[in-house]
């Protein structure tokens, strides 16, 4: 399915919470590349990190897969035999496009695409679980339980790859990072109106945590080592080992 340039917030519009609907799915690759600094690097390296931790006969889960970018990066790097890729997204428009993308790009690979809430999906026999920019959309009170279920579903030696927008405890650092993030969006062609309207639409939907909160919660879920492997402005990638 073709994708297009993101103009969703270009004209004045009523304040409605952001939703992963058909209009967003259509422009999603352009939107995320222009909004998340380092997105392409992080996704490419997700493939390498996943390949290093993949185990024969296991599953690799891509939770909040959107159009399947992380799954495709994994498939490009994976040499371990008998690994099933399981991509999950609860937005029907995303899951349908993800299924079409993965079928077309990976005709010979064992792939499942599931349209469901990641809080309801059973995680089992996993060597790698990927949560790239998804936990931030899960209700904060449900995040610890989800991480504990992921930990329980990972094989010993398995890995969770968690990428998130992050918040800062220091208000001055928060302001500096937000200003740089707005500069990044401006440099990618978004207008002041687009930046303002998208920020307002996401305010109640995307709730970032500080890195301290992430570390504490991952440890409480049972992960033994947590490495910060990626950082670009207010976005970070963590590798957590079972
Ligand atoms: C990428 N990982 O390209 N259950 C299932 N899916 C969910 C849930 C949930 N509870 N909450 C949100 N989603 C991708 C990008 S986008 C990030 C991930 C962004 C899904 C939602 O439908 C959307 O497709 C995805 O998580 C978040 O690396 O748009 O900033």
Task: Look at the structure and give the CATH class of the domain at 39-167 and 208-241.
Answer: Alpha Beta
Give the integer mean of the pLDDT values: 94
How many helices? The count is: 8
Which residues form runs of ≥5 with pLDDT under 50? none
Query: How many strands in all?
Result: 8
* Secondary structure category: alpha/beta
**What's the name of the CATH homologous superfamily of the domain at 39-167 and 208-241?**
Vaccinia Virus protein VP39
> Any ligands, ions or cofactors bound here, and which?
ligand GEK
| Assembly type | single chain
Assign an overall shape: globular
Question: What's the SSE blueprint?
Answer:
Layout: H1 22-35, H2 39-53, E1 59-63, H3 69-77, E2 84-89, H4 92-105, E3 111-115, E4 126-132, H5 143-153, E5 154-167, H6 171-187, H7 192-202, E6 209-210, H8 211-220, E7 225-232, E8 235-241
Parallel strand pairs: 1-2, 1-4, 2-3, 4-5, 5-6
Antiparallel strand pairs: 5-8, 7-8
Helix pairs in contact: 2-3
């Amino acid at each position: 399915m073709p994708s297009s340039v993101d103009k969703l917030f270009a004209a004045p519009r009523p304040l409605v919470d952001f939703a992963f609907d058909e209009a967003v799915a259509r422009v999603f690759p352009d939107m995320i590349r222009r909004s998340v600094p380092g997105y392409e690097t992080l996704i490419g390296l997700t493939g390498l990190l996943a390949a290093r931790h993949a185990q024969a006969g296991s599953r690799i889960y891509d939770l909040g897969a959107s159009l399947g970018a992380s799954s495709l990066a994994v498939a490009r790097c994976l040499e371990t035999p008998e690994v099933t890729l399981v991509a999950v997204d609860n937005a029907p428009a995303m899951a349908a496009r993800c299924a079409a993308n993965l079928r077309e790009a990976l005709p010979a690979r064992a792939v499942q695409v599931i349209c469901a809430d990641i809080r309801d999906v059973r995680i089992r026999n996993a060597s790698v679980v990927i949560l790239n920019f998804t936990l931030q959309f899960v209700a904060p009170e449900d995040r610890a339980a989800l991480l504990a279920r992921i930990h329980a579903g990972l094989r010993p030696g398995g890995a969770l790859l968690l990428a998130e927008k992050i918040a800062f405890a220091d208000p001055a650092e928060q302001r500096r990072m937000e200003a740089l993030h707005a500069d990044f969006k401006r440099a990618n062609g978004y207008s002041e109106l687009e930046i303002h309207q998208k920020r307002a639409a996401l305010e109640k939907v995307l709730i970032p945590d500080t890195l301290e909160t992430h570390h504490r919660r991952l440890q409480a879920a049972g992960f033994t080592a947590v490495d910060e492997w990626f950082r670009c402005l207010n976005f970070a990638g963590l590798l957590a080992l079972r």
